[in-house]
Design brief:
Nucleotidyltransferase, domain 5; 5-stranded mixed beta sheet; alpha/beta; 11 helices; binds zinc ion; binds 5'-O-[(R)-(carboxyoxy)(hydroxy)phosphoryl]adenosine
């Protein structure tokens, strides 16, 4: 049994917004005592993407097991838990509902306070786990399957979105392009791997400029350019070099993410920059930011891949700061699929 001080805050966190059933115990917002993730990826692969109905059903099957696993691995019991944090949006409504219902049920049965957490706030807070010295303010790029946001983190849980995607999220573009070149789902990690064998300068795919807001992103034009390129090769009977397409596409995404992000860091006068979300585990993206930040004297924060893709530890970190601020939710807490940050 893990020895805890009376003043330690232990958060039991639950995350079920998409296709990962996850639970974690986090101590004082920064120390992960357990991090259990049951990933459903294999189940959805044959459909080429997440099937919401299947995701919800699998969450129901797995949630108790995952929560019990998190408590066990942390060596704690429910009576040691200070608060329960749960993702209540954004995400798939049926998937979110499983986690929210589980958290409400445990809270109701035990009297442990309930705290609803925003999924993106969780992704950003993954950086607090990895870097115990990191404090706001800083700029964070959140790039996942559903979101591409450039966020100024003013304080814990206080966010200002300064840029967002006008169409596809970065991860969505990775997934769609991967499908088009026959790599399957999920596309991000596959493109990441294959790109290492390709030439990133082989095909000059466009870098989108988006109208008035210099921090906004757009990836649908790039996706169309890749599809057009593939079509034209097929029509001309030319062989497609998958690795070159992957590397050139990936480079186009990274160039835009790096340029917009570091422009924001400079304009807002910060010297700290963090990344978060599934796409943040991309190796070339991390290398590019590493290099560019070093040249500009900016400290670069990047969570390990396991804390970039969906997990509950990040929800525990975000939940801790909500707890400290005095946020508590009632049993009317509901899943909000399009929850605003
Ligand atoms: O944050 P996440 O696990 O779920 C959402 O909240 O969306 O992100 C999943 C997304 C998927 O689109 C996946 O293809 C992408 O992150 N991804 C990557 C990599 N690993 C995951 N994209 C690029 N490179 C990777 N290594
Ligand atoms: Zn996510």
């Amino acid at each position: 049994m893990e020895q805890q001080n009376r003043e330690d805050v232990l958060i039991l966190a639950i995350e079920t917004s998409c296709d990962e059933t996850a639970a974690s115990v986090v101590k004082n917002g920064r120390e992960v005592l357990s991090n259990i993730i049951y990933t459903q990826i294999a189940l959805h692969t044959k459909y080429g993407g997440v099937v919401p109905e299947i995701a919800s059903r699998k969450h129901i099957e797995k949630i108790n097991q995952v929560v019990e696993g998190a408590l066990e691995e942390a060596g704690v019991a429910l009576r040691d838990i200070t608060a329960i944090a749960v993702t209540y949006g954004p995400g798939l409504v049926g998937a979110l509902l499983v986690g929210v219902s589980e958290a409400k049920a445990i809270s109701f049965a035990t009297g442990i306070p309930l705290i609803g957490v925003h999924h993106i706030s969780g992704h950003i807070s993954a950086n607090y786990i990895e870097y115990r010295e990191l404090e706001p303010p800083f700029v964070c790029l959140v790039a996942s399957g559903g979101h591409s946001h450039l966020v100024v983190v003013r304080d814990y849980g206080e966010y200002e979105i300064i840029g967002r995607t006008r169409d596809d999220a970065a991860g969505e573009a990775f997934d769609k392009v991967a499908r088009a070149i026959g790599l399957g789902y999920p596309g991000g990690p596959k493109i990441d791997k294959l790109s290492k064998e390709g030439n990133p300068d082989a095909i000059p795919f466009p870098r989108a400029k988006v109208g008035e807001n210099e921090y906004d992103f757009s990836f649908s034009g790039l996706k169309s350019a890749v599809l057009n390129y593939l079509n034209s090769c097929r029509m001309k009977g030319e062989e497609i070099n998958q690795a070159d397409v992957a590397a050139s596409f990936q480079k186009a995404v990274i160039d835009v993410l790096v340029e917009h992000s570091l422009h924001a860091v400079k304009e807002y006068g910060f010297d700290k920059f963090a990344i978060a979300g599934g796409v943040a585990s991309n190796t070339s993206l991390r290398e590019a930011f590493e290099k560019e930040c070093a040249e500009r004297g900016i400290t670069f924060y990047h969570p390990s891949p396991v804390y970039c893709t969906d997990n509950a530890a990040m929800i525990g970190a975000a939940g801790y700061y909500e707890y400290v601020k005095g946020v508590r939710h009632g049993y009317d807490l509901n899943a909000v699929p399009n929850l605003k940050l």
